[in-house]
Design brief:
about 350 residues, alpha/beta, QueA-like, Thrombin, subunit H, 2 domains, 6-stranded antiparallel barrel, 6 helices, 17 strands, globular
Length: about 350
Amino acid sequence: MKTSDFYYDLPEELIAQTPVEPRDSSRLLVMDRQTGELEHKHFYDILDYLHEGDCLILNDSRVLPARIFGEKIGTGATVEFLLLKQIENKKWETLVKPGKKAREGAKFRFGNGLMTAKILEVKDDGNRVVEFECEGSFFEKLDQLGQMPLPPYIHEKLQDKERYQTVYSRELGSAAAPTAGLHFTKELLQKAKDKGVKIGFVTLHVGLGTFRPVKVDDVTNHKMHSEHYELPQETADLINETKKNGGRVISVGTTSCRTLETVAKKEGCIKASEGWTDIFIYPGFQFEVLDGLITNFHLPESTLIMLVSAFAGFDNVMNAYKIAVEEKYRFFSFGDAMFIANGVKA
């Protein structure tokens, strides 16, 4: 299968620049996984498609406000730091722009000295190993100084940092939000519970690699980035109980999906597990856990549209995207959502 097979034409005005209010008022394209039949709804209508005995699996990772702007000590030059990966304590692998200002040994300050940093190493790929210094909690200072690392296709400034977090986020560590979950309100989740739908959590810290384009012609030659995940015992028990009782396991987002399918393939069953995954799901993949998927609309030729196509069928998905464009759905991180499952009817 070729990467170009997953291309679709998207007018720029359909790329959502800001989130809708309230969260659950976004639109929802409902797809029958078997027939490809579509219904046009709003996200709050998701309750009509969830049944007693189903379980929703949510990714509770929380986004770091990982973009911080500082000045070079000595010259006052403005430099942007993007935190990519924590190495230890206050030592991080970062992307620094402009890189020529950030040679080994260079020092920077942020927030009039609230925090300082020193470049320890320039890696082969151009990333920097940086050691930060501050009084008290590093993450508290980062919360004061940092901005959300919004995707490159979002040009509007985010007024409320919490709108790029899910309402159930708690485990700090992602460089991007698990965006399918942005549509849920606490009230909507409570209504789902009241209906008899169980809620379980996994953690997968989303890396910036999620935005990395596929640069090979043959899909099978693409190498996925690696991300850290954790599936706790409580969630494993919930999934196994749901399956045993004939309920559906519905993944909220591609990150939850990748976590569940990674564990199933690695362990041979669903059980408590933690580690790193670079699983690449594209058409032909055999799903072992998923019965339903809630997801946003993804970039053309991305690994995420490939994952959705693997679950719902290539022709079904590409047709759904064509119709979503015609119907002027909002796309990408702050855009609208899809719900995909077998035999879906309100």
